[in-house]
Amino acid sequence: AEEEGFDAEEVDGELAAAGAGPLPVLAVVGRPNVGKSTLVNRILGRREAVVEDRPGVTRDRVSYEAEWAGRRFKVVDTGGWEQDVLGIDASVAAQAEFAISTADAVVFVVDAVVGPTDTDTAVVRLLRKSGKPVVLCANKVDGPSTEADATYLWSLGLGEPHPVSALHGRGTGDMLDAVLEALPDAPPETFAAVTGGPRRIALIGRPNVGKSSLLNKVAGEERVVVNEEAGTTRDPVDELIQLGDRIWKFVDTAGIRRRVHLQEGADYYASLRTAAALEKAEAAVVLIDVTEPISVQDTRIISMAVDAGRALVIAYNKWDTLDEERRFYLEREIERDLVQVQWAPRVNVSARTGRHMEKLVPALETALAGWESRVPTGKLNAFLGELVASHPHPIRGGKQPRILFGTQAGTRPPRFVLFASGFLEAGYRRFVERRLREEFGFAGTPIQVSVRVRE
Ligand code: GDP
Ligand code: GDP
After folding, report:
1. Helix (H, G, I), strand (E, B), or coil: what is residue 333?
2. Is the CB of 351 within 6 Å of ligand 2?
3. Which of 27, 96, 106, 245 is least enclosed, having the fewest CB within 10 Å?
4. Where does the chain bind GTP 1 (predicted)?
């Protein structure tokens, strides 16, 4: 097709080279100062040609494309997350949660010279529960004299510690071989890809926002489906509920119905449950309690849903309690804290009175439609051509990077690959993403934009 001088065959070739499908994701987690960033740089070998920018709700995160022994994968650097806001333990836990919910394998970095700390063992518990493959990196083993330090890390129960010096490169090759063994060839097809059967919804939110009340309300007023659909497997913790003319599966409801109170680490378990529910779901309904200010915990749960790549609906619950004053502040909190997910359909509900329950289904349908939508390559490139002409990238160092062409590499959620003649600044990438949304919609779905720089 004649698209702004793009040659269809060339696009196909580039796409094949880029690997049109998603790459397996490796997350690097560990305490501050154990050497995560050093290790990530070592893995990339300074080949930082590709930078992916996925704005989260509360932070930006960057993933890089890496290659080892001919296999390509993405490395996510979790260093420096929110340490100021959350404190060290919480930020390390957030990394682990992220790894659990979105990575295909994890490199857990421990400072072998310092040995395992309490924070390390807390993360180990999370990682082991998750069942995700973990490669244990015993870092800062710079020479034979510190080799013995690595063996102490067997005590973590994560299998063989790989002695590594991220700084000098010692041992990193052997560790990367172990990483390749741990990584799937391609990310496992999510449940979402196994189509047919009811749509799967995760009802999530921090404790006491009204999850159990909402579930009871929707299940109570509508018919609860007891019969199994032919060909669908039903997990006892999932609930089939008919809403409108469709049957929906609310996944992982056991933790919602039965309130488990754990004295210690209750937050950890709540997060794990959220991650597990997201893993099984196609769409998330995140409940926010309007009686309280929007909290870091709320935005983190939304981030988890966005990072997991799920369709998203935000339900503001307990609307029956709202007075004028609280409503005023709520709208300001939403503008301030949730501006990055303003694409998510919003419903103002009351699980107590049943207010606006009927709006839940249309919101979910909108979000799922956006999640599955596809922009034809021709249309996308016509749009990109105009965009580049009207809003060129700023000139940097005498050069002007240009988007050459793009394609939608996948759906659920929509994923785009842009090919560019040079490095695109984060601000420009965000601008492109914003314009993509303005042009094509994508209500209720995160979108992922990655950039490949052609050498
Ligand atoms: P992060 O906070 O986990 O990302 O840690 P950094 O990568 O920033 O490293 C923290 C410090 O440890 C830096 O001063 C690094 O130079 C140092 N470091 C990282 N890896 C090694 C290593 O293998 N050996 C030694 N001796 N120092 C290291
Ligand atoms: P969960 O921990 O998220 O499952 O929350 P629950 O469903 O147990 O609800 C926590 C508390 O909020 C209970 O006391 C509910 O009665 C109350 N609640 C839930 N939804 C509403 C609502 O829409 N309006 C009001 N006023 N209270 C609600």
Report:
1. helix
2. yes
3. 245
4. 30-37, 77-81, 139-142
Length of the chain: 455
- Note whether 54 and 61 are within 8 A (CB): yes
Residues β-bridged to residue 74? 25, 65
The 3-state DSSP class for residue 74 equals: strand
pLDDT of residue 5: 45
Per DSSP, 3 falls in state B
Helix (H, G, I), strand (E, B) or coil at 420: strand
State yes or no: 37 annotated in a binding site: yes
What is the predicted pLDDT for the residue at 352?
93
- Residue 242, pLDDT score: 83
* C-alpha distance from residue 114 to each of 24, 34, 56, 139 (Å): 31, 9, 32, 10
Question: Within a 13 Å sphere around the CA of 90, how many CA atoms are in the beta-carbon half?
Answer: 11
Burial class (CB in 10 A: 0-12, 13-18, 19+), 356: middle
Which ligand 1 atom sits closest to the C-alpha of 39? 7
Listed residue (53, 74, 60) closest to 425, CA to CA:
53
Tokens of 268: 């950890």
32 Cβ below 6 A of ligand 1: yes
DSSP 402: -
Q: Cβ(27)–Cβ(106) under 8 Å?
A: yes
Closest ligand 1 atom, residue 170 Cα: 23
What is the identity of the amino acid at 269?
Answer: Y
Residue 165 CA: which ligand 1 atom is closest?
23
What pTM value is reported for the model? 0.62
φ, ψ for residue 336, nearest 5 deg:
-80, -45
Is the confidence metric ipTM above 0.90 for this complex? Answer: no
